[in-house]
Each structure stands twice: as structure tokens, then as C-alpha cells.
Amino acid sequence: MSHTPDLGRYHLLHTIRGRPAQHGWWWNETVARGKFLACIGLYGVPGAHITLTAEETGEQLAAWPDEA
What is the distance between the alpha carbons of residues 64 and 36, in angstroms, rounded to a whole number? Predict the structure, then answer.
């Protein structure tokens, strides 16, 4: 996965109807997960999709709505 290492290890992406709306990077997973939950509370509306990814591994750590 291509990314800029200086931005952080954990990437939060918020899209609306498939279009990027905002994103952020954090080095600390606990902080990143807190931002993920806050983003759901603020922007979790129909058509929104929010993901948290570990940039080093490409592993998706969390998604809203759940991708079950």
C-alpha cells in the first residue's frame, strides 16, 4: 500500500456516497479508534461510510456501518 509514512500509521477515511469527505492519520491506535467513534457520532448518516485502516499492513481495523 502506498502512503506517506510521516502522516501516521492509522488512517481514518470518511466517504459519502462513495466520494471522500474527510480523512486523518494518527500514530497511536487508541487515539485513532477514538477519532473513528467520534466520526461516527458526528457524521454517521445514511450514505456515509467510515473506515479505520492500519497503513503498515493494509488491515481494516473497523468500519461503519459494519461490513458483515
Answer: 9
Number of H helices, E strands in the chain: 1, 4
Query: How much is the pTM?
Result: 0.84
Dist CA 61 CA 28 (whole Å): 13
Task: Specify the pLDDT at position 19.
Answer: 95
Give the total number of structural domains in the chain: 1
3-state secondary structure of 34: helix
Report the DSSP beta bridge partners of residue 18: none
Peptide bond into 20 cis (omega under 30): no
